[in-house]
Batch of 3 targets.
Target 1
Amino acid sequence: MNDAIRVRVPAKVNLRLAVGPLRPDGYHHLFTVFHAVGLHDEVTITQAEPGAGVTVRILGEGADSLPSGADNIAVRAAKLAAQRAGRSADVEIAITKAIPVAGGMAGGSADAAAVLVGCAALWPGTLSAGDLHALAADLGSDVAFLIEGGTMIGTGRGEILTPVLAQGEFHWVIAVSDMGLPTPQVYAELDRLRADLDVAEPAADDALLRALRIGDARALGRALSNDLQAAAVSLRPELARLLEAGADLGALGGIVSGSGPTCVFLARDREHALDIAVGLTTTGLVRAVRHAAGPVDGARVIA
Ligand code: C5P
């Protein structure tokens, strides 16, 4: 029987998150640019005795607030992977969290991506890359990207991925708030705010893609955009003050990450990121501040 498989999986930020009209299936068409950053959860998968089922143990930031039963997306990922692999679903999952919970950085999706990659390693030859992608798309809109990592365009509801030509390394300051925001609530608030508007189909932004192509942090900072930001700020007005504080500290750009409430700020370099991080800490507007570089790899087996 195989020993434990350890997988490291990053958080994501959306450099652009253009949200189209609400679809009949309750999702929204997106044009997003995903970017994986070096803030990682670690997930260990161990084969359990036959009949033991899937169990999950969660340690680290915000662990107490997560479900440990069948509702946990990591448990669902293990069951789907076992079914596709033709194995019985008997695994122990241990997750050490560093990605903020309900923070808009895809922490739950990251753990699901790690479980899929871990199961493929635990049961060699049973799950192809195509299988993993299909299971990922079933599990959530961000899961497929977190298997890939790097910087990629996401369309559909986020699960259809296209590589982006990108060079350089970017330094981010990640400002974590006290309380998470549930993603469906933020999308619903956006629908409410736009109820009387004609919502266009979401589209690319040439300035952003060019900034990535030439590795220009200043241009990237100017081109960051997130349609969900207005909705997150409407639900948490204090985020406006946090974004302003980042701008005052000289960030090249700052946005709400995904559905928030985590905000991310682009720095010139590592040193500048540390300066911004110190400055944000003193505002009292955040629970924690982290520095992370991107892009980084997606979910990878480390031992
Ligand atoms: O796919 P995922 O489970 O991550 O999505 C969480 C929620 O976010 C969905 O239930 C939906 O309310 C919202 N969502 C959306 N349109 C998307 C992605 C997510 O409305 N493209």
Note: The chain has ten helices and twelve strands.
Target 2
Amino acid sequence: MSTQKVEIFDTTLRDGEQVPGCKLNTAQKLKIAARLDEMGVDVIEAGFPVSSPGDFKSVSEISKLVKNSAVCGLTRAVKKDIEVAAEALKHANKPRIHTGIGTSDSHIKYKFNATREEIIERGATAVAYARKFVDDVEFYAEDAGRSDNEFLAKVCTEMVKAGATVLNIPDTTGYCLPEEYGRKIKYLKDNVPGIENVTISCHCHNDLGLATANAIAGVMNGARQIECTINGIGERAGNTALEEVVMILRQHPTLDLNTLIDPKFLYDTSTMVSREMGMLVQPNKAIVGANAFAHSSGIHQDGVIKNRETYEIIDPAHVGVTESAIVLTARSGRAALAYKCKKVGYELTKLELDKVYTEFLNYADDKKEVLDDDIHEIMELSRKKNIAIA
Ligand code: KIV
Ligand code: ZN
């Protein structure tokens, strides 16, 4: 089987920017959009143009700037939203309108006070109207994760007939289990006439920590687009993290799926988004967290010093991280201490190492982490205790 492409739809500037405190100005959005374009993102969701004049301006400026990626604007299934989005996207090389409506019983009843038939009618009218402005129209079935599969298939069938080019199946509330979400995608593939002519998209939220697993289950069952954000930022617990899906597909060639993203940009882009949004990245965040390539326990450090692959499945250089880190703590062993000592200029014999190690443990017990400067101090303390050091 030849490797199939999974399109990356980045919504950092829309779903990501909805996070309280993460608001960006147009200049910041342009900077991030330029990077997303450079790193190989297929679609940049630039904003929700009708939501504010500032968002309209950002989508419009991003449309002028971006060279390769498609630029997408979100709308509700409302004519005015679609007209405003079309206007904001008019300079884009590849414009896409993303329109849709809720399809779960809860959304139909409480948000729209409507019937299932009315929802289909409103969705299809919006898709057909959006097609008057652009050739590329993505339909989202909001809360598809909790929508009845049979009804969802009916909705999708009508949206394909109305001219949708992409069907987005959001797990808006992050409710689904991976197996369940994968089955949903397969059900649609098997039960929507004409679905082979459109792209199925996964848009997963992280309320149960399953956003990435669900997106991967989706593409394993036939979806060919993943909607994600840098660092997994997004509403509530966030969205699928771009860096995670890109590396999962690269590290698992047996899936026969890949993206066009150049991974060497991942770390720097994570840092850029974190800085611009003022949103810290948790240290244990996969791929881009400060500890993603840091080793602190003695057993792991010994292995990594002998051969990096003993405890690392990714070469940090591939994602733009300079090197793995050996972090000295009271849990470190002699191998790590000798390694760090050598780095700061002390070559120790085995006997010296044994003696300095005892001094190191006493010192490290009072500290969270032993830094390079601390090593000089440990050496000094050792010397004072007449431990011979070359
Ligand atoms: O989570 C969601 O359902 C969304 C849609 C607007 C695509 O963000
Ligand atoms: Zn969302």
Note: The chain has two domains: 7-277, 294-384.
Target 3
Amino acid sequence: MMFCIECGSNEVKLQIPTGDNRQRHICLACNYIHYVNPRIICGTLPTFNGQVLLCKREIEPRSGFWTLPAGFMENGESLSEAAYRETFEEALATSVDLELYTLCSLPHINQVHIFYRCEILDGKFGAGSETLDAKLFDLADIPWDELAFKTVAQCLEFYQQDIQQGLFPIRSTTIKSPYQTREA
Ligand code: ZN
């Protein structure tokens, strides 16, 4: 049973709206169409003196695994504001020089993950809410087997490749599974 979020009626049916090409939940009482679209997760790849800042997650999913600071974009903020906010909330770090870097589509879970590169102001950081530990890693010491998400691993792999030229073009990719496992 699904109720209309607009009028509360339970006369919600799956139908293709006029002029559309896929089924939506439509309220037969007030005609409200319940569109469901992908959600945006935004964060940063923060660096300081050539090291990368990672956060150990305190919450599920993937508690105890390392991640880049990121989270759901909120209404009323820009992408870079979301990246800045998440970096401060999770890593107590102030982002400077944010540059759009990695766009990952995850069609199997209806999400888009977006990472900016940034520097950390004054090298200051710490464990924010939802974080057990925050730590700077040399690129050679990234704990690949203990990364929380495939998108985080992908972003770090791009960074490892791009830093050799010192050029960081925007990278766009599609990822088919959510969790990181290091392939042999
Ligand atoms: Zn309704």
Note: The CA atoms of residues 103 and 150 lie 13 Å apart.
